[in-house]
Input
Amino acid sequence: MRIQRNHTRLTFRRRRRRSGCLSLAVVIGLIAGLLVMSWSWLEKRLPSLTPASSAGNLVNGALDAFERGDLDNAIAMAREALANDADQVDAVILLSRALVYRSYQDYDRESDRAAALELTTELIQRHPTNQDLRAAHAFALQANRQPAAAADAARRVLEENPDHGLAQVSLALAYAVAGSNEIALRESLQAVREYPNMMDAQRALAISYGDNGNYDGAVRSIENAINLNGRLTPLYFERALYALQLGDVDSATYAYMQVLALDPENVKARLRLCELSSLLREREAAIDYCTAVTERAPNWADGWYQLGREYFLQGNFEAAQTNLHQCSTLQVMQDIPVDERRLECWYLQGQAAEIRGDCPALLATYNEFRAMTLNSDITQTWTYPPEGPPGCTEDASSTSNSEGGS
Output
């Protein structure tokens, strides 16, 4: 631009300033108009674009969380993705897998396995040909102890795609659940050969080795799985199990401590440490761990049983009786099927009462046990002579008469 020398500098600046203000107003007006038009267009397009984009990002975030062992966040993000798009197959696959693994994480997660199966069952009706979804369905089936259906679902996927890793793993696990241990080992070995960096495959091989009594092989395989995802707490429970089979108490203890390092409030790990401490006759440690279990999970009968048993072994029969009574009461209140109840809560409670000479409590416990198991097909028995428990003959006779001689 050539400056007009016949104008003063001040005049030139004024003209430039006026010209600039006019241009800026025009530009602002144009931009505002474009924004209004663009926003109107976006308002029409966003309802269809936003959910898919958001769901995709959530699935990726859920996958990252799973790889970090953060199952709670993985599940939350996958569920949010499904809330945006109920047909997000990738979200269902990841969610069902995360639910299955979380079901092994603590004492109160068993319902997660049923939720995983419900998810895959529902979506597979809308997407019956999706191989990944069908493999995830097989994985959920075996976790819910339906090995025949799981094997059938996995085989159908492998017939169409012999290289499907999750289907191969699900087939191996289905055979393991069915007790066909040698076939399970063969299938899991094949899965590991084809997918050595697949955590699920290494875990399936560890389970197969363990079921076949090869605990050294099980330890090696589960450690390979841990190397692939070292923050997944269920893997450490399995590591401890195989270590105990080898009598390696230190490694088992370390594995449970790893669970607590990753999940400080984990109740299941505390119960296992209580059991392990009891096995080692570390009585005070056992009491501490089991007390922590009952404090964190007051509605879990197993914690009260283990604490009562530990007191019984220590000779504190009053405390044993109290805690075992809590165990038996919870099982009745929760309407647990008789053949699934921990009947030791009644046996040991009765023995503690007998040792203490507490005849009323002994007879109440004994009669409750008899009434509870009268029409049940269980192998355990608890029978006193016709005259009743030793030292409680008169009480037993009066109780028998009051019950019509039953």
Q: What stands out?
A: DSSP finds 19 helices and no strands in the chain. The radius of gyration is 32 Å. The CA atoms of residues 14 and 322 lie 96 Å apart.
